[in-house]
Amino acid sequence: MWEILETYWVQLLIGYYPDGPLGGLAMTLILAFAGLLLAMPAGLTVCLGLISPWKPLARCVELFVFYMRSVPLIVHLLWVYFLLPLVIKGAPLWLVVLVVMTLFNGAYLSQTIRAGIEALPKGQYEAARSLGLPHGRAMRHVILPQALRNMLPSIVSQFVLLIKETALGSVIGLHEMTLEFMGLNDTLGDKAIPIFTLLGISYFALCYPLTLLGRYVERRFAGPSRGTTSASAQA
Question: What's the rounded Cα separation, in Å, for the pair 25 and 29?
Answer without folding.
Answer: 6
